[in-house]
Amino acid sequence: MARKKLMAANWKMYKTPDQARDFFHNFLPLVAGHGRDEIVVCPPFVDIRASVESSKNSSVSIGGQNLYWEKEGAYTGEISATMLVATGCTHVIIGHSERREYFGETDDTVNLKLKAALEADLTPIVCVGEVLEEREAGLTEDVLRRQCVRAFHAVSTKKAGKLVIAYEPVWAIGTGKTATPRMAADAHRLIRGEAAKTFGEEFANSMRILYGGSVKPENAKALMSEGEIDGALVGGASLDPKSFAAVVKY
Ligand code: 13P
To answer: What is the whole-number distance in angstroms between the Cα of residue 209 and the centre of ligand 1?
Structure first.
């Protein structure tokens, strides 16, 4: 089954609203009429409004980089799924390795966030991936399996509808080191196998698995030509309109 690729930008903590507007002003003409892939940009929360307005008449969707699982309440500094939807987001990144490393996210909070996102009809992009020590110790498969099993806990196939996974080997993020298409494909097959165990073969075969970690215009084509790779989650190279457009159009 052909899976439409999803090319997603993760801006991390970069750009003000004005810089976001500038980005779209320059980026949108470069991808006008590009219908082959789905395009999503995930800016910092404060740029969402500017990004939604700037991309209004385009096929580019906007997503959050995080969310909190409660609907509302005394949770200073947090943002709910409902709030993301209300500001025009259709997607949300969950469990990015930087959130796991610096902000105490665990497999269990990823699971709570995933359920909240699905409940609000957002397309969740759940990040999994091993750190260098785990890869070197031969633990990659165990880590990916554990992250998937715990993320998918108590999510029904019916509810999981829009689930997207991003395989981001942590050693490849922002380092200039990329997994080879073959390494990524092996990891993606394992992730798809885990999804099949929880959600069934049919669901797993239609579920998109993105690769993230130093994706650039120079390596996007080789990675995207691998049948198991259904798109990219792009950090550094997504900040510049020309380079993100070149990745999208690999
Ligand atoms: P880089 O593309 O900068 O390596 O970042 C990848 C990433 O973390 C995307 O979420």
So the answer is: 15
